[in-house]
Amino acid sequence: MTLDPVIEHKRIVVCVGAGGVGKTSVAAAIALHAARAGRRTLVMTIDPAKRLAQSLGLPRLDHEERRVPTEKIAVGAGAGTVRGELYAMMLDQKRALDEFVERRVASPEHRQRIFDNRIYQSISTSLAGSQEYAAMTKLYTVAEDGRYDLIVLDTPPTSNALDFLEAPRKITEAVDSPAIQWLIRPYMSAGRFSLKLVSFGGAFVLRRIARFVGSDFIEDMASFLVDFNEMLGGFRERADQVFALLKQPSVAFVLVASPEPLAIDEAVFFHHRLVERAMPFGAFVVNRVHRSLGALPPPDEVVIRLTLRPELQGFSADDLAHASQTLRRIGADFEALAQGNQQQIARLAEACGRDLPYVQVPFFDRDVYDVDGLTLLASHLFAA
Protein backbone atom coordinates (compact mmCIF):
# COMPACT_ATOMS: atom_id res chain seq x y z
CA MET A 1 0.00 0.00 0.00
CA THR A 2 1.23 3.52 -0.85
CA LEU A 3 -0.07 7.07 -0.44
CA ASP A 4 -0.59 7.58 -4.19
CA PRO A 5 -4.36 6.95 -4.25
CA VAL A 6 -4.81 8.74 -0.93
CA ILE A 7 -3.52 12.17 -1.99
CA GLU A 8 -3.71 11.98 -5.79
CA HIS A 9 -6.67 14.36 -6.05
CA LYS A 10 -6.39 16.14 -2.69
CA ARG A 11 -5.85 19.85 -2.13
CA ILE A 12 -5.01 19.66 1.58
CA VAL A 13 -3.16 16.94 3.48
CA VAL A 14 -3.00 17.31 7.28
CA CYS A 15 -0.26 15.23 8.95
CA VAL A 16 -0.96 14.46 12.60
CA GLY A 17 0.65 12.17 15.13
CA ALA A 18 2.51 11.79 18.40
CA GLY A 19 5.80 13.52 19.03
CA GLY A 20 9.00 11.89 17.78
CA VAL A 21 7.45 9.63 15.11
CA GLY A 22 8.86 11.49 12.10
CA LYS A 23 5.69 13.43 11.28
CA THR A 24 7.53 16.53 10.04
CA SER A 25 9.72 14.42 7.77
CA VAL A 26 6.67 12.61 6.37
CA ALA A 27 4.96 15.95 5.65
CA ALA A 28 8.08 17.24 3.87
CA ALA A 29 8.46 14.01 1.86
CA ILE A 30 4.82 14.21 0.70
CA ALA A 31 5.29 17.82 -0.38
CA LEU A 32 8.59 17.06 -2.12
CA HIS A 33 7.06 14.17 -4.05
CA ALA A 34 4.07 16.30 -5.11
CA ALA A 35 6.35 19.09 -6.36
CA ARG A 36 8.41 16.64 -8.37
CA ALA A 37 5.20 15.27 -9.86
CA GLY A 38 4.25 18.70 -11.19
CA ARG A 39 2.10 20.23 -8.45
CA ARG A 40 2.60 23.67 -6.97
CA THR A 41 2.94 22.67 -3.33
CA LEU A 42 3.19 24.41 0.03
CA VAL A 43 4.29 22.64 3.22
CA MET A 44 3.30 24.49 6.41
CA THR A 45 4.49 23.71 9.91
CA ILE A 46 3.34 25.01 13.29
CA ASP A 47 6.14 23.11 14.99
CA PRO A 48 8.97 25.54 15.91
CA ALA A 49 11.63 22.84 15.40
CA LYS A 50 14.13 23.64 12.62
CA ARG A 51 14.09 20.15 11.10
CA LEU A 52 11.86 21.08 8.15
CA ALA A 53 14.04 24.00 7.05
CA GLN A 54 17.18 21.89 7.38
CA SER A 55 15.67 18.99 5.44
CA LEU A 56 14.75 21.26 2.54
CA GLY A 57 18.10 23.04 2.52
CA LEU A 58 16.63 26.40 3.54
CA PRO A 59 18.59 28.68 5.91
CA ARG A 60 15.42 29.43 7.89
CA LEU A 61 11.66 29.24 7.87
CA ASP A 62 9.30 31.98 8.98
CA HIS A 63 5.82 33.31 8.31
CA GLU A 64 6.66 34.09 4.69
CA GLU A 65 6.14 31.44 2.02
CA ARG A 66 9.67 30.65 0.80
CA ARG A 67 10.35 28.82 -2.42
CA VAL A 68 12.70 25.85 -2.29
CA PRO A 69 15.21 26.19 -5.18
CA THR A 70 14.42 23.89 -8.11
CA GLU A 71 17.96 22.49 -8.06
CA LYS A 72 17.42 21.49 -4.42
CA ILE A 73 14.18 19.65 -5.30
CA ALA A 74 15.99 17.86 -8.12
CA VAL A 75 18.58 16.35 -5.75
CA GLY A 76 17.91 12.62 -5.63
CA ALA A 77 15.12 12.84 -8.19
CA GLY A 78 17.00 10.73 -10.74
CA ALA A 79 16.74 11.60 -14.39
CA GLY A 80 13.19 12.89 -14.06
CA THR A 81 12.51 16.57 -14.68
CA VAL A 82 11.06 18.59 -11.81
CA ARG A 83 7.80 19.99 -13.16
CA GLY A 84 6.32 21.60 -10.05
CA GLU A 85 7.28 24.08 -7.36
CA LEU A 86 7.79 23.67 -3.64
CA TYR A 87 7.25 26.34 -1.00
CA ALA A 88 7.62 26.12 2.76
CA MET A 89 6.68 28.27 5.75
CA MET A 90 6.55 28.12 9.54
CA LEU A 91 3.53 29.73 11.14
CA ASP A 92 4.16 32.81 13.28
CA GLN A 93 1.27 32.67 15.69
CA LYS A 94 1.19 36.40 16.49
CA ARG A 95 1.55 37.42 12.84
CA ALA A 96 -1.35 35.15 11.85
CA LEU A 97 -3.65 36.60 14.54
CA ASP A 98 -2.57 40.15 13.69
CA GLU A 99 -3.47 39.49 10.05
CA PHE A 100 -6.89 38.25 11.12
CA VAL A 101 -7.49 41.41 13.18
CA GLU A 102 -6.41 43.57 10.24
CA ARG A 103 -8.93 41.84 7.98
CA ARG A 104 -11.81 41.99 10.46
CA VAL A 105 -11.36 45.48 11.99
CA ALA A 106 -11.79 48.36 9.55
CA SER A 107 -10.88 51.20 11.90
CA PRO A 108 -7.11 51.82 12.20
CA GLU A 109 -7.64 53.28 15.69
CA HIS A 110 -9.59 50.21 16.77
CA ARG A 111 -6.90 47.88 15.39
CA GLN A 112 -4.12 49.79 17.13
CA ARG A 113 -6.03 49.72 20.40
CA ILE A 114 -6.21 45.94 20.16
CA PHE A 115 -2.52 45.58 19.21
CA ASP A 116 -1.43 47.84 22.10
CA ASN A 117 -3.50 45.98 24.67
CA ARG A 118 -1.26 43.94 26.97
CA ILE A 119 -3.83 41.14 27.25
CA TYR A 120 -3.95 40.74 23.46
CA GLN A 121 -0.14 40.75 23.30
CA SER A 122 -0.06 37.91 25.81
CA ILE A 123 -2.89 35.93 24.23
CA SER A 124 -1.47 36.24 20.72
CA THR A 125 1.81 34.65 21.81
CA SER A 126 1.10 32.25 24.66
CA LEU A 127 -2.58 31.43 25.25
CA ALA A 128 -3.28 27.71 24.95
CA GLY A 129 -5.17 27.13 21.74
CA SER A 130 -4.24 30.43 20.09
CA GLN A 131 -1.46 28.79 18.08
CA GLU A 132 -3.85 26.19 16.73
CA TYR A 133 -6.49 28.82 15.97
CA ALA A 134 -3.87 30.91 14.15
CA ALA A 135 -2.87 27.85 12.11
CA MET A 136 -6.46 27.21 11.08
CA THR A 137 -6.88 30.86 10.08
CA LYS A 138 -3.72 30.84 7.97
CA LEU A 139 -4.59 27.49 6.41
CA TYR A 140 -8.00 28.79 5.38
CA THR A 141 -6.53 31.99 3.93
CA VAL A 142 -3.92 30.15 1.88
CA ALA A 143 -6.42 27.55 0.68
CA GLU A 144 -8.94 30.17 -0.39
CA ASP A 145 -6.55 32.19 -2.54
CA GLY A 146 -6.05 29.12 -4.75
CA ARG A 147 -2.36 29.64 -5.47
CA TYR A 148 -1.38 26.07 -4.58
CA ASP A 149 -2.40 22.73 -6.01
CA LEU A 150 -1.57 21.02 -2.71
CA ILE A 151 -1.08 22.26 0.86
CA VAL A 152 0.58 19.90 3.34
CA LEU A 153 0.12 20.89 6.98
CA ASP A 154 2.47 19.55 9.64
CA THR A 155 0.88 19.83 13.08
CA PRO A 156 2.23 19.64 16.65
CA PRO A 157 2.10 16.31 18.54
CA THR A 158 -1.28 14.60 18.85
CA SER A 159 -2.50 16.31 22.05
CA ASN A 160 -1.98 19.69 20.40
CA ALA A 161 -3.46 18.43 17.15
CA LEU A 162 -6.65 17.74 19.07
CA ASP A 163 -6.52 21.37 20.19
CA PHE A 164 -6.12 22.22 16.51
CA LEU A 165 -9.65 20.89 15.98
CA GLU A 166 -11.15 22.17 19.23
CA ALA A 167 -9.40 25.52 19.86
CA PRO A 168 -11.94 27.77 18.06
CA ARG A 169 -14.84 26.34 20.01
CA LYS A 170 -12.97 26.68 23.32
CA ILE A 171 -11.95 30.29 22.66
CA THR A 172 -15.41 31.44 21.57
CA GLU A 173 -17.10 29.62 24.45
CA ALA A 174 -14.70 31.26 26.91
CA VAL A 175 -15.47 34.77 25.65
CA ASP A 176 -19.19 33.96 25.51
CA SER A 177 -19.23 32.77 29.12
CA PRO A 178 -21.53 34.53 31.65
CA ALA A 179 -18.55 35.49 33.82
CA ILE A 180 -16.84 37.31 30.96
CA GLN A 181 -20.04 39.07 29.93
CA TRP A 182 -20.54 40.18 33.55
CA LEU A 183 -17.03 41.64 33.62
CA ILE A 184 -17.37 43.68 30.43
CA ARG A 185 -20.91 44.99 31.08
CA PRO A 186 -19.72 48.12 33.00
CA TYR A 187 -17.21 48.87 30.24
CA MET A 188 -19.86 48.54 27.54
CA SER A 189 -22.14 51.06 29.27
CA ALA A 190 -19.54 53.66 30.31
CA GLY A 191 -16.69 53.25 27.83
CA ARG A 192 -14.28 52.60 30.68
CA PHE A 193 -14.19 50.01 33.42
CA SER A 194 -15.39 51.36 36.79
CA LEU A 195 -15.97 49.51 40.03
CA LYS A 196 -18.77 51.99 40.78
CA LEU A 197 -20.83 50.37 38.04
CA VAL A 198 -20.35 46.89 39.44
CA SER A 199 -22.62 45.43 42.08
CA PHE A 200 -21.44 45.70 45.67
CA GLY A 201 -20.47 42.04 45.89
CA GLY A 202 -18.82 42.08 42.49
CA ALA A 203 -16.84 45.21 43.32
CA PHE A 204 -15.61 43.59 46.52
CA VAL A 205 -14.39 40.53 44.59
CA LEU A 206 -12.67 42.64 41.93
CA ARG A 207 -10.95 44.83 44.52
CA ARG A 208 -9.56 41.72 46.14
CA ILE A 209 -8.33 40.47 42.75
CA ALA A 210 -6.85 43.89 41.97
CA ARG A 211 -4.67 43.66 45.08
CA PHE A 212 -2.84 40.78 43.39
CA VAL A 213 -2.94 41.64 39.69
CA GLY A 214 -3.37 45.44 39.75
CA SER A 215 -6.31 47.59 38.71
CA ASP A 216 -4.60 48.33 35.37
CA PHE A 217 -4.75 44.63 34.56
CA ILE A 218 -8.50 44.52 35.15
CA GLU A 219 -8.91 47.61 32.97
CA ASP A 220 -6.80 46.04 30.21
CA MET A 221 -8.75 42.81 30.48
CA ALA A 222 -12.12 44.54 30.26
CA SER A 223 -10.95 46.70 27.36
CA PHE A 224 -9.62 43.71 25.46
CA LEU A 225 -12.75 41.66 26.04
CA VAL A 226 -14.95 44.47 24.73
CA ASP A 227 -12.86 44.77 21.57
CA PHE A 228 -12.68 41.00 21.24
CA ASN A 229 -16.42 40.73 21.81
CA GLU A 230 -16.96 42.87 18.70
CA MET A 231 -14.81 40.43 16.71
CA LEU A 232 -16.34 37.30 18.21
CA GLY A 233 -18.72 36.86 15.30
CA GLY A 234 -15.73 36.85 12.98
CA PHE A 235 -13.97 34.22 15.07
CA ARG A 236 -17.06 32.01 15.05
CA GLU A 237 -17.50 32.51 11.33
CA ARG A 238 -13.86 31.63 10.58
CA ALA A 239 -14.03 28.57 12.83
CA ASP A 240 -17.11 27.35 10.96
CA GLN A 241 -15.43 28.01 7.63
CA VAL A 242 -12.32 26.06 8.59
CA PHE A 243 -14.34 23.10 9.87
CA ALA A 244 -16.32 23.09 6.64
CA LEU A 245 -13.06 23.24 4.67
CA LEU A 246 -11.46 20.34 6.60
CA LYS A 247 -14.51 18.12 5.99
CA GLN A 248 -14.39 18.45 2.22
CA PRO A 249 -13.49 15.41 0.09
CA SER A 250 -10.42 17.30 -1.15
CA VAL A 251 -8.86 16.99 2.32
CA ALA A 252 -7.07 13.97 3.79
CA PHE A 253 -5.77 13.45 7.31
CA VAL A 254 -2.62 11.30 7.34
CA LEU A 255 -1.95 9.87 10.77
CA VAL A 256 1.74 9.18 11.41
CA ALA A 257 2.77 6.71 14.11
CA SER A 258 5.62 4.44 15.07
CA PRO A 259 5.19 0.76 16.04
CA GLU A 260 5.66 1.60 19.72
CA PRO A 261 2.79 0.82 22.13
CA LEU A 262 2.28 4.41 23.32
CA ALA A 263 2.41 5.84 19.79
CA ILE A 264 -0.11 3.22 18.64
CA ASP A 265 -2.39 4.11 21.57
CA GLU A 266 -2.29 7.78 20.57
CA ALA A 267 -2.95 6.90 16.92
CA VAL A 268 -6.02 4.85 17.88
CA PHE A 269 -7.29 7.65 20.11
CA PHE A 270 -6.83 10.34 17.48
CA HIS A 271 -8.39 8.21 14.74
CA HIS A 272 -11.48 7.74 16.87
CA ARG A 273 -11.70 11.51 17.38
CA LEU A 274 -11.43 12.11 13.64
CA VAL A 275 -14.23 9.62 13.03
CA GLU A 276 -16.39 11.31 15.67
CA ARG A 277 -15.96 14.63 13.86
CA ALA A 278 -16.53 13.11 10.41
CA MET A 279 -13.12 14.30 9.24
CA PRO A 280 -11.88 12.74 5.96
CA PHE A 281 -9.29 10.19 7.03
CA GLY A 282 -6.67 9.31 4.43
CA ALA A 283 -4.16 6.75 5.70
CA PHE A 284 -1.91 5.58 8.48
CA VAL A 285 1.84 5.90 8.01
CA VAL A 286 3.67 3.62 10.43
CA ASN A 287 7.25 4.87 10.46
CA ARG A 288 10.51 3.22 11.56
CA VAL A 289 9.29 -0.34 11.29
CA HIS A 290 11.89 -3.07 11.94
CA ARG A 291 11.57 -5.70 9.25
CA SER A 292 12.20 -9.41 9.61
CA LEU A 293 15.61 -10.76 8.58
CA GLY A 294 14.10 -14.09 7.67
CA ALA A 295 15.45 -17.46 8.77
CA LEU A 296 18.86 -17.27 10.44
CA PRO A 297 21.63 -19.48 8.99
CA PRO A 298 22.91 -22.43 11.06
CA PRO A 299 25.83 -21.70 13.46
CA ASP A 300 28.38 -23.61 11.35
CA GLU A 301 27.43 -21.61 8.26
CA VAL A 302 27.89 -18.36 10.17
CA VAL A 303 31.39 -19.47 11.20
CA ILE A 304 32.25 -20.30 7.58
CA ARG A 305 31.03 -16.89 6.43
CA LEU A 306 33.08 -15.17 9.12
CA THR A 307 36.17 -17.20 8.15
CA LEU A 308 35.86 -15.94 4.56
CA ARG A 309 35.97 -12.29 5.57
CA PRO A 310 39.51 -10.91 5.02
CA GLU A 311 39.36 -8.55 7.98
CA LEU A 312 38.77 -11.51 10.32
CA GLN A 313 41.79 -13.54 9.19
CA GLY A 314 43.95 -14.59 12.12
CA PHE A 315 41.13 -15.06 14.59
CA SER A 316 40.95 -18.45 16.23
CA ALA A 317 38.14 -20.95 15.64
CA ASP A 318 36.95 -20.35 19.20
CA ASP A 319 36.79 -16.59 18.57
CA LEU A 320 34.76 -17.13 15.41
CA ALA A 321 32.44 -19.58 17.14
CA HIS A 322 31.85 -17.05 19.93
CA ALA A 323 31.18 -14.35 17.31
CA SER A 324 28.73 -16.69 15.58
CA GLN A 325 26.79 -17.19 18.79
CA THR A 326 26.72 -13.44 19.46
CA LEU A 327 25.49 -12.66 15.94
CA ARG A 328 22.74 -15.25 16.14
CA ARG A 329 21.63 -13.89 19.52
CA ILE A 330 21.49 -10.37 18.09
CA GLY A 331 19.60 -11.71 15.07
CA ALA A 332 17.09 -13.44 17.33
CA ASP A 333 16.60 -10.23 19.33
CA PHE A 334 16.11 -8.25 16.12
CA GLU A 335 13.59 -10.82 14.87
CA ALA A 336 11.65 -10.53 18.14
CA LEU A 337 11.66 -6.74 17.72
CA ALA A 338 10.36 -7.07 14.14
CA GLN A 339 7.59 -9.42 15.27
CA GLY A 340 6.68 -7.03 18.08
CA ASN A 341 6.37 -4.19 15.57
CA GLN A 342 4.00 -6.24 13.43
CA GLN A 343 1.92 -7.13 16.47
CA GLN A 344 1.51 -3.42 17.27
CA ILE A 345 0.53 -2.66 13.67
CA ALA A 346 -1.98 -5.51 13.81
CA ARG A 347 -3.37 -4.03 17.04
CA LEU A 348 -3.78 -0.68 15.27
CA ALA A 349 -5.62 -2.34 12.38
CA GLU A 350 -7.84 -4.28 14.76
CA ALA A 351 -8.82 -1.12 16.64
CA CYS A 352 -9.33 1.16 13.62
CA GLY A 353 -10.32 -1.14 10.77
CA ARG A 354 -8.39 -3.60 8.62
CA ASP A 355 -9.71 -2.09 5.39
CA LEU A 356 -7.98 1.27 5.95
CA PRO A 357 -4.72 2.16 4.13
CA TYR A 358 -1.59 1.33 6.16
CA VAL A 359 1.79 2.40 4.76
CA GLN A 360 4.85 0.94 6.47
CA VAL A 361 8.19 2.75 6.31
CA PRO A 362 11.23 0.75 7.42
CA PHE A 363 13.71 1.84 10.05
CA PHE A 364 16.54 3.56 8.17
CA ASP A 365 20.21 3.31 9.03
CA ARG A 366 20.49 7.09 8.65
CA ASP A 367 18.64 10.18 9.87
CA VAL A 368 16.30 12.04 7.54
CA TYR A 369 17.86 15.50 7.62
CA ASP A 370 18.25 16.48 3.94
CA VAL A 371 16.63 16.11 0.53
CA ASP A 372 18.34 12.74 -0.05
CA GLY A 373 16.76 11.46 3.15
CA LEU A 374 13.36 12.82 2.15
CA THR A 375 13.75 11.13 -1.23
CA LEU A 376 14.43 7.82 0.47
CA LEU A 377 11.38 8.32 2.71
CA ALA A 378 9.20 9.26 -0.29
CA SER A 379 10.28 6.08 -2.10
CA HIS A 380 8.49 4.09 0.59
CA LEU A 381 5.45 6.39 0.72
CA PHE A 382 4.81 6.45 -3.03
CA ALA A 383 5.01 3.83 -5.74
CA ALA A 384 7.16 5.99 -8.04
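(ticket continues) Second input and output from the same batch:
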Amino acid sequence: MLLNSAKRYGAVAVTLHWLTAAAIIGMLVLGKYMTDLADIDQSKFPLYQLHKSIGITILVLSVGRLLWRLANVVPPLPAGIPAWQRWGAHGSHILLYVLIIAIPLSGWAQVSSNPIGIPTIWFGQFEIPPFPGLPVSVPFTHFMREVHENLGNLMILLLLVHVGAALKHHFWDRDTVLRRMLPFTNVE
Protein backbone atom coordinates (compact mmCIF):
# COMPACT_ATOMS: atom_id res chain seq x y z
CA MET A 1 0.00 0.00 0.00
CA LEU A 2 1.49 3.34 -1.08
CA LEU A 3 -0.66 5.61 1.08
CA ASN A 4 -0.79 5.80 4.85
CA SER A 5 -3.67 4.08 6.58
CA ALA A 6 -5.26 4.48 9.98
CA LYS A 7 -2.93 1.73 11.29
CA ARG A 8 0.42 2.25 9.58
CA TYR A 9 2.53 4.40 7.29
CA GLY A 10 2.41 3.53 3.60
CA ALA A 11 5.31 2.52 1.36
CA VAL A 12 6.05 6.09 0.23
CA ALA A 13 6.27 7.47 3.79
CA VAL A 14 8.30 4.47 4.99
CA THR A 15 10.74 4.74 2.07
CA LEU A 16 11.18 8.49 2.51
CA HIS A 17 11.66 8.03 6.28
CA TRP A 18 14.39 5.39 5.98
CA LEU A 19 16.17 7.05 3.04
CA THR A 20 16.25 10.34 4.92
CA ALA A 21 17.31 8.64 8.17
CA ALA A 22 20.20 6.80 6.48
CA ALA A 23 21.33 9.96 4.68
CA ILE A 24 21.19 12.07 7.84
CA ILE A 25 23.12 9.56 9.93
CA GLY A 26 25.71 9.25 7.16
CA MET A 27 25.96 13.02 6.92
CA LEU A 28 26.44 13.47 10.65
CA VAL A 29 29.25 10.91 10.65
CA LEU A 30 30.81 12.41 7.50
CA GLY A 31 30.49 15.94 8.86
CA LYS A 32 32.23 15.08 12.13
CA TYR A 33 34.95 13.15 10.27
CA MET A 34 35.75 15.76 7.61
CA THR A 35 35.82 18.71 10.02
CA ASP A 36 38.44 16.86 12.07
CA LEU A 37 40.74 16.47 9.06
CA ALA A 38 43.75 18.75 8.75
CA ASP A 39 43.32 21.54 6.20
CA ILE A 40 46.15 20.11 4.10
CA ASP A 41 44.54 16.64 3.88
CA GLN A 42 43.95 15.87 0.18
CA SER A 43 40.71 14.00 0.89
CA LYS A 44 39.05 17.03 2.48
CA PHE A 45 37.86 18.77 -0.71
CA PRO A 46 36.08 15.75 -2.27
CA LEU A 47 34.51 14.91 1.10
CA TYR A 48 33.11 18.45 1.36
CA GLN A 49 31.71 18.19 -2.17
CA LEU A 50 30.11 14.86 -1.27
CA HIS A 51 28.75 16.34 1.97
CA LYS A 52 27.23 19.29 0.08
CA SER A 53 25.72 17.02 -2.61
CA ILE A 54 24.11 14.73 -0.04
CA GLY A 55 22.93 17.78 1.92
CA ILE A 56 21.10 19.20 -1.11
CA THR A 57 19.60 15.74 -1.72
CA ILE A 58 18.40 15.58 1.89
CA LEU A 59 16.84 19.03 1.49
CA VAL A 60 14.88 17.90 -1.59
CA LEU A 61 13.88 14.60 0.06
CA SER A 62 12.81 16.44 3.20
CA VAL A 63 10.61 18.90 1.37
CA GLY A 64 9.03 15.97 -0.48
CA ARG A 65 8.63 14.11 2.78
CA LEU A 66 6.98 17.09 4.47
CA LEU A 67 4.56 17.59 1.55
CA TRP A 68 3.72 13.87 1.58
CA ARG A 69 3.06 13.99 5.33
CA LEU A 70 0.80 17.04 4.98
CA ALA A 71 -1.17 15.36 2.18
CA ASN A 72 -1.67 12.01 3.93
CA VAL A 73 -3.35 10.79 7.06
CA VAL A 74 -0.95 10.25 9.96
CA PRO A 75 -1.66 7.01 11.81
CA PRO A 76 -2.65 7.88 15.37
CA LEU A 77 -0.58 6.78 18.31
CA PRO A 78 -1.93 3.82 20.29
CA ALA A 79 -4.73 4.74 22.69
CA GLY A 80 -2.88 3.96 25.93
CA ILE A 81 -0.04 6.44 25.42
CA PRO A 82 -0.06 9.19 28.09
CA ALA A 83 -0.73 12.78 27.01
CA TRP A 84 2.78 13.96 27.87
CA GLN A 85 4.26 11.32 25.56
CA ARG A 86 1.86 12.36 22.78
CA TRP A 87 2.97 15.97 23.18
CA GLY A 88 6.60 14.85 23.24
CA ALA A 89 6.16 12.78 20.09
CA HIS A 90 4.37 15.61 18.31
CA GLY A 91 6.94 18.22 19.39
CA SER A 92 9.93 16.05 18.52
CA HIS A 93 8.51 15.31 15.06
CA ILE A 94 8.04 19.01 14.41
CA LEU A 95 11.60 19.67 15.54
CA LEU A 96 12.89 16.82 13.35
CA TYR A 97 11.19 18.33 10.30
CA VAL A 98 12.57 21.77 11.14
CA LEU A 99 16.08 20.35 11.49
CA ILE A 100 16.04 18.19 8.35
CA ILE A 101 15.27 21.35 6.39
CA ALA A 102 17.23 23.92 8.44
CA ILE A 103 20.50 21.97 8.53
CA PRO A 104 20.90 21.73 4.74
CA LEU A 105 19.74 25.34 4.34
CA SER A 106 22.30 26.53 6.89
CA GLY A 107 25.05 24.57 5.12
CA TRP A 108 24.00 26.02 1.77
CA ALA A 109 24.00 29.51 3.33
CA GLN A 110 27.48 28.91 4.76
CA VAL A 111 28.88 27.89 1.37
CA SER A 112 27.05 30.69 -0.45
CA SER A 113 28.36 33.42 1.85
CA ASN A 114 31.99 32.31 1.67
CA PRO A 115 34.12 34.90 -0.19
CA ILE A 116 36.34 32.10 -1.52
CA GLY A 117 33.40 31.10 -3.73
CA ILE A 118 33.95 27.34 -4.07
CA PRO A 119 30.93 26.09 -6.02
CA THR A 120 28.79 23.13 -5.02
CA ILE A 121 28.76 20.61 -7.86
CA TRP A 122 25.93 18.16 -7.18
CA PHE A 123 27.60 14.73 -7.43
CA GLY A 124 29.84 16.16 -10.16
CA GLN A 125 26.86 16.79 -12.45
CA PHE A 126 25.81 20.45 -12.20
CA GLU A 127 26.43 23.51 -10.09
CA ILE A 128 24.00 24.44 -7.33
CA PRO A 129 23.57 28.23 -7.43
CA PRO A 130 24.37 30.26 -4.31
CA PHE A 131 21.59 30.83 -1.79
CA PRO A 132 20.05 34.11 -2.97
CA GLY A 133 20.32 37.36 -1.04
CA LEU A 134 23.02 36.45 1.46
CA PRO A 135 25.95 38.69 2.34
CA VAL A 136 29.29 37.41 1.09
CA SER A 137 31.56 37.87 4.09
CA VAL A 138 33.89 35.92 6.32
CA PRO A 139 32.03 36.84 9.56
CA PHE A 140 28.68 35.69 8.13
CA THR A 141 30.30 32.48 6.82
CA HIS A 142 31.70 31.76 10.29
CA PHE A 143 28.33 32.52 11.86
CA MET A 144 26.55 30.12 9.47
CA ARG A 145 29.20 27.47 10.12
CA GLU A 146 28.43 27.68 13.87
CA VAL A 147 24.70 27.54 13.17
CA HIS A 148 25.17 24.51 10.88
CA GLU A 149 27.35 22.68 13.39
CA ASN A 150 25.07 23.44 16.36
CA LEU A 151 21.99 22.31 14.45
CA GLY A 152 23.85 19.10 13.57
CA ASN A 153 24.67 18.53 17.23
CA LEU A 154 21.03 19.14 18.15
CA MET A 155 20.04 16.60 15.48
CA ILE A 156 22.34 14.01 17.08
CA LEU A 157 20.62 14.51 20.45
CA LEU A 158 17.15 14.45 18.91
CA LEU A 159 17.92 11.28 16.95
CA LEU A 160 19.07 9.57 20.13
CA VAL A 161 15.77 10.52 21.80
CA HIS A 162 13.76 9.51 18.71
CA VAL A 163 15.43 6.11 18.37
CA GLY A 164 15.33 5.56 22.12
CA ALA A 165 11.60 6.32 22.23
CA ALA A 166 10.89 4.00 19.29
CA LEU A 167 12.85 1.17 20.92
CA LYS A 168 11.15 1.81 24.27
CA HIS A 169 7.75 1.53 22.60
CA HIS A 170 8.77 -1.64 20.79
CA PHE A 171 10.56 -3.56 23.54
CA TRP A 172 9.12 -2.11 26.77
CA ASP A 173 5.58 -1.09 25.89
CA ARG A 174 5.23 -3.69 23.12
CA ASP A 175 2.98 -1.43 21.08
CA THR A 176 2.84 -0.68 17.35
CA VAL A 177 4.68 2.67 17.31
CA LEU A 178 7.85 1.28 15.69
CA ARG A 179 6.27 -1.48 13.59
CA ARG A 180 4.00 0.95 11.76
CA MET A 181 7.11 2.61 10.27
CA LEU A 182 9.04 -0.60 9.54
CA PRO A 183 8.86 -2.04 6.03
CA PHE A 184 7.37 -5.51 5.55
CA THR A 185 5.70 -5.64 8.96
CA ASN A 186 2.12 -6.31 9.85
CA VAL A 187 0.34 -4.02 12.29
CA GLU A 188 -2.74 -5.47 13.95
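Agent notes: The first strand starts at residue 120 and ends at 122. Residues 34 and 45 are 9 Å apart (CA to CA). Closing as not reproducible unless the customer responds.
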